[in-house]
Specification:
four-stranded antiparallel beta sheet; Methylamine Dehydrogenase, Chain H; 28 strands; 464 residues; 14% helix; mainly beta
């Protein structure tokens, strides 16, 4: 069979690698570092270049090194195929040598690379972060040992950007991003922190990212256009709000990453939540003006709570045994919230947020007048965002009296989460593209964190 010039060149590079390995005593190559740090480079889109996988992953191609074919529905390789890739790419590396073919072949000649690479020069400079990762692997870098420690993180979606921001609440700095999801909407995290789930309105899918590397690994097709999501307390299922078509709730097996069911609701669903004891999933509908309550043991509809206005964000308080006591509902075009007794399924109160004092102006919010709520971990306070007032209100529980207010400099405030200890509230401001940080004890805004365009849903999670 006739070989192309490119294939002969690659064989020569392989032989050069063998010769250099024979001459050099160097550290061993680390598989974990390759899997977690190097492999994502092969599927990353780079400006003005085709991705590495386009040519090196083509099953009809004779290019080497050759990447294993991706399983349909996945964005990264499984363990078995990762080891195949590791073995293949190790042939083009001389551990400890900057002359390794893997480093010089895709590098521009003016930066120290060689002139031959039909895929173009992926790296114009040795300062390129991805080239630095390749270099680190070649020089023997290893993944740090994991002792099972986890770190608190605020995960902030950015609806009009193609990335999600990861915020460290210890210093309110962005420490990572999940890239490649346009119109990202809801987010949830597995109990062990290993998987991050994001609803993807562009691809009509539930996307999965690795909790350590933030790289996308899977894209699970959904029944229709999604909105917000929530994961069960035991981590078994992800409940996806389906706003398109006839609506419903898609049930995703969080282990097999398969859609196992669509629960019919006969109305579009905007938000899903899970009760404090994990026994029920709650699906709120704006157009349907109702909350559908789902038994998480059977994934069947248990009952429906009809309302007179559309359902916006929810929050829940718990009884001493952990069961749900009250359900708090923010409603379309209402600056306040309704209180539902969960045991009787009945509305027992409706609380209007105080008007602004004379001369003070809020922000015109459309129908999302009051948007964003949370109950503190000690069950003593309900925090409620008023978008029209640009303020966060503090209500004592169980008497539901206003005990304080924090002015928000950010505009378009609407989604909220708390730090794990409940000491700080993080409020997404969809107009000013930032996140307000409010000290719960002093009831003061203490920081604003710039994030992507149109920040919306956010959650707090423990990540590896």
């Amino acid at each position: 069979m006739r070989r192309t010039i490119a294939s002969w060149a690659l064989i020569a590079f392989g032989l050069m690698g063998q010769q250099l390995r024979a001459q050099t005593a160097a550290p061993s190559l680390d598989f974990e570092f390759f899997r977690e740090k190097v492999q994502p480079i092969f599927v990353t889109e780079r400006m003005d270049h085709a991705r590495c996988i386009v040519c090196h992953g083509d099953p009809e191609s004779n290019l080497h090194p050759h990447l294993a074919e991706l399983t349909p529905g996945t964005l990264l390789w499984n363990e078995e195929d990762s080891r195949k890739n590791f073995a293949e790419y190790s042939k083009f590396v001389v551990p400890g040598s900057l002359k390794s073919p893997l480093l010089v072949h895709p590098l521009a000649p003016e930066a120290g690379g060689d002139p031959d690479h039909l895929g173009g020069k992926q790296f114009k400079s040795q300062d390129d972060p991805d080239w630095q990762i390749l270099k680190a692997w070649v020089m023997g870098a290893k993944m740090p040992p994991s002792a099972g420690a986890t770190k608190a993180r605020i995960i902030q979606t950015n609806f009009a950007s193609n990335y999600i921001d990861i915020i460290d609440p210890a210093n309110d700095k962005i420490v990572g991003q999940i890239k490649g999801i346009e119109l990202n909407h809801g987010v949830a995290v597995s109990p062990d922190g290993n998987r991050i789930f994001i609803s993807d309105e562009t691809n009509i899918s539930l996307d999965v990212a690795d909790g350590r590397t933030f790289q996308l690994t899977n894209r699970i097709p959904l029944s229709e256009h999604p909105n917000n999501i929530y994961i069960g307390r035991d981590g078994r299922f992800v409940y996806v709000s389906i706003a398109g078509g006839k609506g419903g709730v898609d049930v995703i097996d969080a282990k097999t990453l398969q859609r196992v069911k669509t629960i019919p609701t006969n109305m579009s669903i905007h938000n899903t939540y899970v009760t404090p004891d994990g026994k029920y999933a709650l699906a709120g509908s704006i157009r349907g003006k109702a909350v559908t309550v789902i038994d998480t043991e059977t994934n069947e509809v248990a009952w429906t709570i009809p309302m007179d206005l559309g359902i916006r964000p929810m929050a829940m308080s718990a009884n001493l045994d952990g069961s749900t006591k009250w359900l708090f509902l923010q409603l379309t075009a209402y600056n306040g919230f309704a209180v539902i007794d969960f045991a009787t399924h009945k509305e027992i109160n409706r609380i209007k947020i105080p008007d602004l004092p004379p001369g003070k102006k809020g922000y015109p919010p459309g129908n999302e007048v009051s948007h964003g709520m949370f109950v503190t971990p000690d069950q003593k306070t309900l925090l409620v965002v008023s978008r029209i007032n640009s303020a966060l209100y503090f209500y004592s529980l169980p008497d539901l009296k206003v005990v304080g207010m924090a002015d928000l400099e950010g505009k378009g405030s609407g989604w909220m989460t708390l730090s794990p200890d409940g000491s700080r509230a993080y409020i997404a401001n969809a107009v000013t593209d930032d996140v307000s940080v409010v000290d719960v004890k002093t009831m003061k805004e203490v920081d604003r964190i710039p994030v992507g365009f149109t920040p919306k849903r956010n959650i707090t999670a423990m990540l590896p």
